[in-house]
C-alpha cells in the first residue's frame, strides 16, 4: 500500500495486521481522489474508521490543510501514527483513539469539509446514518461538506438509511467496493 499522489507520492504505508481492518485498495483510492480533486486542497478532513489512515494521508498529501483520524483499535492507531511519520505529514494530522460514535457526538478538529467514512462492512447502514446525523448535530460538518461512504457492493444499499440532510450526488463501483458520494443539502437541514 502506498500514497498515490501529491507531496508524499510513492511513500509506503503499513497496514495493521489482522482481519479487523480492510484498507482501501490503491485503485479505489486513486479513483476516489481523482473524482474529488477540487474539494481536497485546503480542506479539513475526517477519516472516520481510519484503519491504516491511508485515506486521510492521501488527502494530506494532495493538499488538505488538516486531517483527523478516528480509530478504536490500538494496533491500527499505532499504524496511523507510523504512517503519518512515513508520509511526512504528522504535523497536519491528529489521531483520535476511540469509538466513532463518541467522536461524532463530540468531534474535535472540525467542522469538516470532507468526511471519508470507511466503516467495517459489518456496521449496518442504520448505524452509519446515526453517526452522520450525530456529527451534523454536533457541528462537525460544514454547510458545503462532501461525505464519501465506502461499502461492500454485495451488502444492503444504505441509501434509505442515510440522514435526510445528505443528498446522494453519485456512486461508483470498483469490484466489490462501492463509493457513495453525498453532499450536505441545506434544504433538508432542520
Report what the structure shows.
The protein is α/β, with parallel strands linked by helices and 190 residues long. The chain has a domain of 126 residues: Rossmann fold (3-Layer(aba) Sandwich), CATH 3.40.50.150. Helix content is 27%, strand content 27%. The protein has five helices and seven strands, in the order H-E-H-E-H-E-H-E-H-E-E-E. A seven-stranded mixed β-sheet has the order 3-2-1-4-5-7-6, covered by helices on one side. The longest helix has 14 residues. The protein starts with 25 loop residues before the first helix and ends in a 6-residue tail after the last strand. The model has no long low-confidence stretch (mean pLDDT 89).
List keywords for this structure.
190 residues; Rossmann fold; alpha/beta; 7-stranded mixed β-sheet
Amino acid at each position: 500500500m502506498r500514497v498515490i499522489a501529491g507531496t508524499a507520492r510513492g511513500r509506503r504505508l503499513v497496514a495493521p495486521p489482522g482481519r479487523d481492518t480492510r484498507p482501501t485498495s490503491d485503485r479505489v483510492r486513486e479513483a476516489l481522489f481523482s473524482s474529488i480533486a477540487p474539494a481536497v486542497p485546503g480542506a479539513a478532513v475526517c477519516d472516520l474508521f481510519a484503519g491504516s489512515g491511508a485515506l486521510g494521508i492521501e488527502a494530506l498529501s494532495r493538499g488538505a490543510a488538516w486531517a483527523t483520524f478516528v480509530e478504536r483499535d490500538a494496533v491500527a492507531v499505532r499504524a496511523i501514527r507510523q504512517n503519518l511519520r512515513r508520509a511526512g505529514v504528522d504535523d497536519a494530522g491528529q489521531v483520535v483513539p476511540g469509538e466513532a460514535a463518541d467522536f461524532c457526538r463530540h468531534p474535535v478538529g472540525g467542522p469538516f469539509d470532507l468526511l471519508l467514512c470507511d466503516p467495517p462492512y459489518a456496521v449496518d447502514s442504520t448505524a452509519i446514518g446515526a453517526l452522520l446525523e450525530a456529527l451534523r448535530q454536533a457541528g462537525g460538518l460544514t454547510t458545503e461538506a462532501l461525505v464519501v461512504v465506502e461499502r461492500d457492493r454485495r451488502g444492503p444499499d444504505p441509501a434509505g438509511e442515510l440522514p435526510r440532510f445528505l443528498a446522494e450526488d453519485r456512486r461508483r463501483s470498483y469490484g466489490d467496493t462501492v463509493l457513495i458520494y453525498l453532499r450536505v443539502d441545506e434544504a433538508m437541514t432542520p
